[in-house]
Write a structure and sequence with these properties.
The structure is a homodimer of 146-residue chains.
Chain A (H helix, E strand, L loop, with lengths): L5 H13 L7 H7 L4 H13 L3 E4 L5 E4 L8 H7 L18 H26 L3 H18 L1
Antiparallel strand pairs in A: 1-2
Helix pairs in contact in A: 1-6, 2-3, 4-5
The complex binds FE2/S2 (inorganic) cluster (2 copies).
Chain B binds a DNA duplex (30 and 30 nucleotides) through helix 3.
GO molecular function, one term (chains A, B): DNA-binding transcription factor activity
InterPro entries (chains A, B): Tscrpt_reg_Rrf2, WH-like_DNA-bd_sf, WH_DNA-bd_sf
Protein name (chains A, B): Rrf2 family transcriptional regulator
DNA sequence: GCTTCATGTAACTTCGTTTATTACGATTTA
DNA sequence: TAAATCGTAATAAACGAAGTTACATGAAGC
C-alpha cells in the first residue's frame, strides 16, 4: 500500500519555515521538498484550517507559522491532517456476520487500539520546538565537522 | 488506503480448519470467506512455507493445520506472511539527503518503532488455541440464546 | 491408463488510495 | 493594470492489494 507521507511533509515544511523570518511560498517549499506547489497548498491548507499556519496571497505572500512552536505537537499535526488511519493492516470485514469473524476481529482490534494509543501518545510528547532544536543541534554539529 | 487483510484472512481460515477433522479445500475456504480459491492458495501457501499448515493435492486433498494450536501466535502468522509493513503513515524520504529530513525521520521513526514493538508483543501473546477457545465460547453463548 | 479432483503458479485485470499535474479563478501588491 | 501568489476543481499517474483467468502438476480411484 502507498503510505501517507503528509505528516512527514508538513514537518519538513514547518522546520524550514521556523528558520525563516518571511513567509515562504508554495513554490519555494515545493522545490525544497521535490514536489508540486499545488500539493503543498493542499496539505498546508489543512494546517491553516486548524489555525497552525496562515497564508497570504499576492506578491510577498506565502505561508507563515501562526502557532507557538512549544505548544504544537506531532499529534496536533496528525489531527490537522484529518487523523488518517494509521495501520496498513486490518480486518477483512469490519462488520462481521459470523462468529468466527467476531472472535478474530476482537483479538486484532484490541492490539491495534493499544498500538495506536501508544503512537498518539508519543506524538503528543514531541513539540515543534523540540524538533527544531534537534535540527539546529544537528546543523551545528555538521558545520563543526566541516 | 487499501489495507492488507491477509492476517485477518488466514485467522479465519485457521479457525474454520480447527473445527474440522478433514482437510478443507481452497474452494471451501474461499466460499466461506467470500473470496477466490486462488487467493486462498496464495496466502495459505505462505503458511505452508512456514510449516504451519500442509496441503495435499488430488481428491480428498486440501489444507490441514500442521502445528500445535497452543504454540502458534499471531506473531508467527504475521512473520509467515512476510512481515508486511504495519503502518499506513511513513516518511516522505527514507534515505534523507538533508538535515531537516534527518531530524524529522528520527522523531517519527522512534515513535513508529515503539508502536510496532508493542503491537508485535501483543501478537505474540495470542495463540491460535486461545482464539479458538474464544470462538467456541461465543458459539456456545450464541446457541444458548437461540 | 484415464478421469477427476485438487493444489501450484504465472499473467493479467480491477479497484482504491495517494501523489502529481493542469487549468483557471481570486486576491494582493506595486 | 501587471505580476505574484494562493484556492480549488478536475484529471492523470503511480502504486499496491485483491480478484480473475488460464493452464500445469500431482494424487486417488476406477
Ligand atoms: S526538505 Fe528542505 S532541505 Fe530537505
Ligand atoms: S463463516 Fe465467517 S469466515 Fe467462515
Amino acid at each position: 500500500m502507498k503510505r501517507d507521507s503528509r505528516l512527514s511533509s508538513v514537518l519538513h515544511a514547518l522546520l524550514h519555515m521556523a528558520e525563516q523570518n518571511e513567509p515562504m511560498t508554495s513554490e519555494q517549499l515545493a522545490a525544497c521538498m521535490c514536489t508540486n506547489p499545488v500539493v503543498v497548498r493542499r496539505t498546508m491548507g489543512l494546517l491553516r484550517d486548524a489555525g497552525l499556519v496562515t497564508s497570504e496571497r499576492g506578491p510577498s505572500g506565502g505561508w507563515t507559522i501562526a502557532a507557538d512552536l512549544e505548544a504544537v505537537t506531532l499529534r496536533d499535526l496528525h489531527e490537522a491532517l484529518g487523523e488518517p488511519s494509521i495501520f496498513a493492516i486490518g480486518n477483512r470485514n469490519e462488520n462481521p456476520g459470523c462468529l468466527v469473524e467476531l472472535a478474530v476481529n476482537a483479538a486484532l482490534d484490541g492490539a491495534f487500539a493499544d498500538a495506536e494509543a501508544l503512537l498518539l501518545d508519543r506524538f503528543a510528547k514531541v513539540t515543534l520546538a523540540r524538533l527544531s532544536a534537534d535540527f539546529n543541534r544537528r546543523h551545528a554539529a555538521h558545520r563543526a565537522r566541516s
